[in-house]
Structure formats: C-alpha cells, structure tokens
UniProtKB/TrEMBL annotation:
GO terms for biological process: dTMP biosynthetic process. It comes from marine metagenome. GO terms for molecular function: flavin adenine dinucleotide binding; NADPH binding; thymidylate synthase (FAD) activity; thymidylate synthase activity. This is Uncharacterized protein. The lineage of its organism: unclassified sequences, metagenomes, ecological metagenomes. SUPFAM superfamilies: Thymidylate synthase-complementing protein Thy1. It holds the Pfam family Thy1.
Amino acid sequence: IAPEMARMVLPQCMMTEWIWSGSVFAFSRVCNLRSKSNAQAETRMVTHQLSRHMKDHFPICYKYLID
C-alpha cells in the first residue's frame, strides 16, 4: 500500500512523518514563496523550520538563495 493511501484511514489528528528529497534550489523556492504573509500560518511554520535546517546545513547557499 502506498503511504498516501495508508494515511487515508488515520484520524485527522494523527501525526505522520515522511522524508523529503529535493535540491537546495527547490527548497529555497518553497521557502521564498510560502513564507510570505499571505500563506497559511501552518505553511509558514513549516517553511520556518525548513529555512532553519537549510541555514544550518547549507549556509552559503542559504545566504544567496533566500530573499
């Protein structure tokens, strides 16, 4: 069963975990687009955490890719 199908049967309040993969450029683009004030609060919380991890692991790229 695919993970997205298995999550269908979980109650809405259950926590799930997954592993993301992608390029630094792609993650920086997500952060730039989804950390603005017109994004949902939950989305901004995720991008804040993503930005923190990017800054820790890729400080030089972060400096140039994040607006």
